[in-house]
Amino acid sequence: SGARVRRAHNKRLPQYLERGVDVKFSDVAGLGKIRLELEEIVKFFTHGEMYRRRGVKIPGGILLCGPPGVGKTLLAKAVAGEAGVNFFSISASQFVEIYVGVGASRVRSLYQEARENAPSVVFIDELDAVGRERGLIKGSGGQERDATLNQLLVSLDGFEGRGEVITIASTNRPDILDPALVRPGRFDRKIYIPKPGLIGRMEILKVHARKKPMAEDVDYMAVASMTDGMVGAELANIIEVAAINMMRDGRTEITTDDLLQAAQIEERGMLDRKDRSTETWKQVAINEAAMAVAAVNFPDLRNIEFVTISPRAGRELGYVRLKMDHLKFREGMLSRQSLLDHITVQLAPRAADELWYGEGQLSTIWAETADNARSAARTYVLGGLSEKHYGVSDFWVADRINEIDLEALRILNMCYDRAKEILNENRKLMDAIVDQLVNKKSLTKQEFTNLVELHGSIKPMPPSI
Ligand code: ADP
């Protein structure tokens, strides 16, 4: 792979060397500006002399911080790959041994090998396993770990500023590391790798799709938008599962549908790792089912991508994805009737809570959607769409505010009654969706449509005003 490997004088085979590491930055997607920081690390190798001449200190160690699966290991390999240097790796959990002295001696041989084969990157995975603040673990296990940590500190100091062996370590818990580890000259540079955002997820999917027979019209954005909260490792897995799906069907190209299905499977796996009581699942399911059932009644809201109750990053509850609605709504293209329909859909969870749990036991599960309804109702009134006209300028007049709110309240009540009516007429459909959601956590568009056809009593709603 073009590695500038200096021949070891010692013929012993290096144990910790990973051969054939051929990762490049182009294999790691969705990094944004972090990439610049990593490119600089590559320069420590390729332009080390220049840094030294200018008196710039080269860090002894770099800490990649972030949750599992975001690509920390991949990045460390890419640094070695781009610089064309050897890659040595060990997982710190391997240091933690029952036998006294084993951990420390492993650290010693690791660094000895790295030095003999310099320039090289030493990668220590899960540094926190060994790097926890000393004295926190009692007993002989603690002593052993302290000896290992001490050896690591000594080894790091041995290379300080020379730029021939650079240590990269990964951790999800930089906060619990022993302060001695993060002192200048040791792991004095921290780089945070967050979970990828929407665009990042799309880029990661594309990188992994490069080596697969993808259909030309694959909608990566659709997959990215339904994988909120997932990391690179999970996204890579989606591509693999989709490929298996294609093979099983005897097809030759991976389609968007393959990817969406694989995403659901991946997500279910993710869900199994979270725990919620059945009662909570059911309540969230009722909340989501209500929105979906209300939405299919309305032309602009009917296009439902999927229904899910999976917990995702930053959003505790699930949601119904109304594709068309979102686009039109953002672009301000909703008609007067559509805006009312939108309000009805947003109030459906509140209505369902009343119908299924009764007034006495209302929860706040629908707080967010009720809020959406409230603000849409004000938009409706202030936009001059209601019978009684108010201009935006009225908003500033104190005695008008009350009138505006009353008119908005009237709209909300009317839509709320519609929502209740729809749900009452579709109890069978609601039960079927809730049942499946509790079991499977997500319904595809097709699965949802099938249930609607089977149990639904959907009639085009007459305009309400
Ligand atoms: P970490 O070390 O943060 O736990 P890894 O680097 O081991 O994560 O990631 C596991 C796999 O997930 C990688 O080998 C790669 O296939 C995929 N992956 C993770 N993050 C990315 C990314 N940003 N771009 C491309 N692939 C990624």
Radius of gyration (CA) equals: 29 Å
**Which stretches are low in confidence, meaning pLDDT under 50 for 5 or more residues running?**
1-10, 323-327
Residue-averaged pLDDT, rounded?
A: 81
Bound molecules: adenosine-5'-diphosphate
Helix content: 40-55%
How would a crystallographer describe the biggest sheet?
A: 5 strands, parallel
In spatial order, strands of the major sheet run: 2-3-4-1-5
Name the shape in a single word.
elongated
**SSE pattern, N- to C-terminal:** HHEHEHEHHEEHHHHHEEHHHHHEH
Query: Count the helices. How many?
Result: 17
Strand proportion, as a percent range, falls in 5-15%
Secondary-structure-based class equals: alpha/beta
Spatial gap, N to C terminus: 71 Å
DSSP strand tally = 8
